[in-house]
Amino acid sequence: MKSLLGDLEGFIIFMETVVSGIRPTGSLHLGNYFGALRNFINMQNEQNCFFFIADYHSLTTHPTPIDLYGNVRQILVEYLAAGIDPEKATIYVQSDVPEVAELYLYLNMNAYIGELERCTSFKDKIRQQPQNVNAGLLTYPTLMAADILIHHATKVPVGKDQEQHLEITRTFGNRFNRMYNVDYFPEPKAFNFGQELIKIPGLNGSGKMGKSEGEGNAIYLADEPEAIRKKVMKAVTDAGPTVPNQPKSEPIQNIFQLMKVVSTNETLSFFEEQYNSCQIRYGDMKKQLAEDMILFTAPFRERIIAISSDEAYLSKVARMGKEKAQESAAKCIQEVREIIGFR
Ligand code: TRP
């Protein structure tokens, strides 16, 4: 009995709280899947995970109500289709938990204009949208800090570009602790998935797969087979190897890298040999790659279609997520109110 309890305690201590937000900006591609989603799915089994759709954040760009709703819904559908399990992880819509907005207000009282203005993401936005430099953009890091601190998260799985936001989150949490002389908010750390992180290149010869990298660069989980064939057949290649074992150019490395993640080892080594012996026909390789991508994405696409038409299931998931997230958020807000001195 004693040892069983010991094990249980060990297990509870080992469970860390994970928070990650996803901006609702449209459909998911293979880069999103291999870069982030696959890791979320692994994490949900071992940690206390909160994955939310950052719809408050998206208001900085003034979406229409229809676009906002459609994008939030699409992300929810695709996350579920990709394998995030609402029974394991808490998946919720940010605006369903207005406690976040309340914490954001409190944190803003101790967020200084100077430090917010120095934030790289804010400086980038000023450059990108000089006609719309709103206060929401300036305080984006405060809202992100509220997202994370509200659940007392310690691990935040994000890319390198979010490192500075996490630094600010720690600053704000520590500042609150110091100001009220409490040991309340823990320090969240960026969580990188170790060696598992692989770069998924796009189809236009250079750089990573992405929505903003141009038409035809990305393969979406929801793509129809014909769309995949078209995009892959148009992928950039080169003139072909002229000497055995010739080093590969970037576009060719990219095609091999994509094949590595969706095709079998046999297929990959077959084309490696063809390349190394200068017999390769890129057209054949791309045909094979397209078919393997279709096979890989087919189950996702089927689930996307099925879940998307299941309004009852979607609202149930959203309701469940809202309840679980609110339980954790309401507890925090109640404690924060007391600490601040609202009685
Ligand atoms: N800023 C993140 C991004 O652009 C999205 C985000 C908002 C987030 N709130 C968060 C990520 C909280 C992790 C935790 O990708």
Describe this protein's structure.
It is a single chain. 57% of the residues lie in helices and 6% in strands. It is mostly helical and 343 residues long. The strands form 2 sheets. It has a 3-stranded parallel sheet. A two-stranded parallel ribbon has the order 4-5. Strand 4 (155-156), helix 10 and strand 5 form a beta-alpha-beta unit. Helix 9 crosses helix 10 (163-179) and helix 12 (250-262) crosses helix 14 (282-308). The longest helix is centred in the last third of the chain and has 30 residues, at 311-340. It is elongated, with a radius of gyration of 23 Å. 35% of the residues are buried. Bound molecules: tryptophan (TRP).
